[in-house]
Specification:
The radius of gyration is 19 Å and the shape is globular. Helix content is 32%, strand content 24%. It contains 10 helices and 13 strands. The longest helix has 22 residues. It folds into 2 domains: 170 residues, Thiolase/Chalcone synthase (Peroxisomal Thiolase, Chain A, domain 1, 3-Layer(aba) Sandwich); 149 residues, 3-Layer(aba) Sandwich (Peroxisomal Thiolase, Chain A, domain 1), CATH 3.40.47. The strands form 4 sheets. It has a 5-stranded mixed sheet with strand order 1-7-6-4-5, with helices on both faces. It has a 4-stranded mixed sheet with strand order 8-13-12-11, with helices on both faces. A hairpin with a 3-residue loop joins strand 12 and strand 13. The protein is an alpha/beta fold. The protein binds acetyl coenzyme *A (ACO).
């Protein structure tokens, strides 16, 4: 029994924030943002449009791609670091929106690595034959935790959602392996320090803008390249493969220079590397399923294609998933 992705979907909000828009609100330039990050625009959710709204649309699209009905879904796992509210889970809200009444639903918190952590849980449940049809969603409204006055972070993030329907099937194709890692020692490299249980919302939290992302950019950059390279090598070596055996490499979309540096270290030609950060910015847990859906719909991923997904994010967390489609 293997867990196979039988349908994908994605959704981004209509409103687009361009680099020129940002030039008008903070001391930055289109040239700086494009050269240093590769980002040209990002999609931004409307007021009141939470992660469950975006995730529901991506999930519905994935179910339709998989030719499955909401009643067929046994489990919904949502990766998000921007839930609609502390509780209930965003997964329960998506279950309600879809009318997937038979499904168990819960969230996973692993920031930008969240989708791969969730996919790994789906894979394990399916191979244990606990559940057959699992909906895995990565959805984020990063604009809700982005400080619009901080030029070092407000240029980076965007909103969006991606989803995959994973089904237990017999045969050789499907998820071949997952490798997950965490290092809580470096929790403070990227965090939202306030607004949680340790420092609940207060005047101080609001005045010091602690309810927004704080990031040590260049330290994060170096670790992202190192860990994504390590995660890719770990997946390859577990299957006695070389980088030449990988048809499509989908890294987390945080910065085009991180992606290019990782590919260079792996000696992987950019033709096999997926990069859509220019259009969406860093959508955290949504970035990998968004890119995956684009590749599936562009017919770049077909039966037998070897796909390597690699993520890095706050926690710190990093992970890989190797798939024979
Ligand atoms: N416009 C113009 N200048 C800027 C901007 C801006 N938007 N932002 C920073 N600068 C300035 C800085 O102030 C600094 O100026 P100084 O030299 O006078 O002090 C200079 O540009 C260089 O700053 P650096 O931070 O060294 O720039 P760097 O090349 O590292 O790029 C960036 C910054 C884009 C944030 C990069 O470090 C990065 O992408 N880091 C990784 C982010 C990441 O991977 N996140 C993943 C996880 S996210 C999650 O888990 C939710």
């Amino acid at each position: 029994m293997r867990a196979k992705i039988i349908g994908t979907g994605s959704y981004v909000p209509h409103s687009v924030l361009t680099n020129s828009d940002l030039e008008r609100s903070v001391d930055t330039s289109d040239q700086w943002i494009t050269e240093r990050t590769g980002i040209r625009s990002r999609h931004i959710a409307s007021p009141g449009e939470g992660s469950s709204a975006l995730g529901t649309k991506a999930a519905a699209s994935a179910l339709s791609c998989a030719h499955l009905d909401q009643a067929d879904v046994d489990l919904i796992i949502v990766a998000t670091c921007t839930p609609d509210m502390p509780f209930p889970s965003t997964a329960c809200l998506i279950q309600r929106n879809l009318g997937a009444t038979a499904a168990v639903a819960f969230d996973v918190s692993a920031a930008c690595s969240g989708f791969l952590f969730a996919l790994s849980i789906a894979d394990h449940y399916i191979r244990a034959e606990t559940y057959r049809n699992v909906l895995v969603v990565g959805t984020e409204v990063m604009s809700s935790v982005t400080d619009s006055t901080d030029r070092t972070t407000c240029i980076l993030f965007g909103d969006g959602a991606g989803a995959a329907v994973v089904q237990g099937v017999d045969g050789e194709n499907g998820i071949l392996s997952n490798h997950l890692h965490s290092n809580g020692q470096r929790w403070d490299l990227i965090c939202v320090p306030g607004g949680g249980s340790q420092q609940p919302l207060s005047e101080t939290v609001l005045n010091e803008r602690l309810n927004f992302i704080k990031m040590r950019g260049s330290a994060t950059f170096k670790l992202a390249v190192k860990m994504m390279e390590q995660a890719a090598r770990e997946a390859l070596s577990a299957h006695h493969l070389t980088i030449d055996d990988i048809d499509i490499f989908i890294p987390h979309q945080a910065n085009s220079r991180i992606i290019e540096a990782t590919a260079k270290r792996l000696q992987l030609p950019m033709e096999r590397v997926v990069m859509n950060i220019g259009q969406y910015g860093n959508t955290s847990a949504a970035s990998i399923p968004l890119a995956l859906d684009e590749m599936v719909r562009a017919n770049r991923i077909k039966d037998g294609t070897r796909v390597l997904l690699v993520a890095f994010g706050s926690g710190l967390t990093w992970a890989s998933t190797l798939i024979r489609w």
